[in-house]
Write a structure and sequence with these properties.
A 4-stranded antiparallel sheet has the order 2-1-3-4, covered by helices on one side. Strands 5-6-7 form a 3-stranded antiparallel sheet, with no helix packed on it. It has 3 helices and 7 strands; from the N terminus they run ββαββααβββ. The longest helix has 13 residues. By secondary structure, it is of the alpha+beta class. The chain folds into 2 domains: 78 residues, P-loop containing nucleotide triphosphate hydrolases (Rossmann fold, 3-Layer(aba) Sandwich); 69 residues, no CATH class.
């Protein structure tokens, strides 16, 4: 589904920085990105250039310091936590690299009003089941990125 322009996901002027106590590290500055319907993209680059930060923002797991992200023409970061949880549950997919990433994602959905949830780990990934804020049961498998 798209917003009529053919764009499904759009990052508009996204900024993200981190303060390490000694300096401010600008990871993303004014990032612009548009992904169209049925379009595939790859995010590549050296370690530390902001790939995971970008993906966390696009997946609404983290908020930008500036700018916005739209999904189907709707601003993700102007949504209520419950509506954002619904979007994460119904419209976005994630591949977690580690258990800590899964735990961070799991906390996000719990903080947004998930009724009940559970995670079962296997050598190949995590089986997750829960009820979204409307009580709709959801169940899925998150593959581990480090398993070929």
């Amino acid at each position: 589904m798209s917003d009529g322009s053919g764009c499904v996901l759009r990052a508009i002027g996204v900024d993200r920085h981190f303060d390490d106590g000694q300096r401010i590290i600008h990871v993303l500055r004014g990032l612009e990105l548009s992904v169209g319907e049925r379009e595939s993209i790859a995010v590549v680059g050296e370690s530390g250039v902001g790939k995971s930060t970008l993906l966390h923002i696009l997946g609404a797991l983290d908020r930008p310091d500036g700018g916005d992200v739209e999904l189907d023409g709707k601003s993700l970061f102007s949504m209520s936590p419950a509506d954002l949880a619904k979007v994460r549950c119904r419209s976005l997919g994630f591949v977690c690299h580690s258990r800590s990433e899964l735990d961070a994602w799991h906390r996000k959905i719990q903080d947004a009003g998930v009724v009940e949830s559970g995670v079962v780990e296997s050598p190949f990934g995590w089986h997750v089941n829960f009820r979204d804020p409307d009580g709709i049961p959801l169940e899925f498998f998150l593959p581990r990125a480090d398993v070929a």
